[in-house]
Sequence to fold (310 residues):
Amino acid sequence: MSEVDYDLVIIGGGPAGLTAGLYAARSRLNVVLIEKAALGGQVIISDWVENYPGFPEGINGFELMQRMADQAKRFDLVIETKEVISLELTEPVKKIHLNDRTVTAHTIIIATGASPRKLGIPGEDIFSGKGVSFCATCDGPFYKDRIVAAVGGGDTAVKESLFLTKFARKVYLIHRRDTLRAAKILQERAIENNKIEFLWDSVVTRINGGLTNVESLTVKNVKTHETHTLPVDGCFIWVGTDPNTTFLKNAVKLDKSGFVVVDATMETSVPGVYAAGDIRNPLCRQIVTAVGDAAMAVYSAEHYLEKIKG
Ligand code: NAP
Fold:
């Protein structure tokens, strides 16, 4: 056993990864959390989180994640800023290939979450960072008294459109159907907000602009098939998320949408390898569900370790 570097390697430092880190460090496992970028995951771009229990007034996403990281570090969780390139899971001792070395572990928790989905339309990539954005907290303040569009009909699109109205003069909310998927309370707030104008049954087919900025969108009504040009200064895209699984390369079983398949104990198709949070396609994708997954994954990993170590 002594030649194995870790009991547990946690990959990803969002709500699931940090919670797994907290539980594992408190259980005094020999654990490391590996995150390639900033800690906190997608939540850090959320201006206000108001459905995480214990914060009756709500809390800024960045601050919430800072608190989660501080809590895990209080129990001496070791965190390394490294990129996981691939996993080798064919033997009981798993190999985690990092950008600078390989480490070994008895168990792994995959908590790499998901990234904003793209529309895949002309202009989306070339204007990214020049008027096309996936983050209202980061870029919203640039649009003071200007006109922006938001694409999507889920919680993110509606919630972030409401946030954009703090800055923008007008927000067009463009949705491909005539009913929103977002929670009713968010729908009510958006409908009551006179800065938001809905473009129903509509899709953006092209983002147009000059050399350095967005000037308009080509919008198509999916029922009438009519197309028109909508002048805007910016376009925010919130059409869901895709799992961050490039390093997995089929090391564990994925579902048809590319999310990691787990059982009720959060175990993947490989014994001793678990997944938690948005990477596993839960029906309800929330911070509370991610942290719940993580607690379960650590509990399962501890049982697995007890079994193999006798
Ligand atoms: P989502 O719920 O998957 O919604 C994606 C939206 O984008 C849907 O309205 C979908 O339309 C639309 N869409 C997808 N692909 C599109 C395309 N190619 N072109 C145009 N529109 C497209 O994603 P989300 O809003 O990011 O939310 C993800 C999860 O996080 C959800 O579980 C949500 O509840 C949760 N969340 C919660 C909060 C909160 O405050 N509680 C905040 C943010 C996110 P259709 O409706 O037609 O499918």
In short: The helical segments are 15-26, 61-74, 136-139, 155-164, 184-192, 287-309. The longest helix spans residues 287-309. The chain has a mean pLDDT of 95.
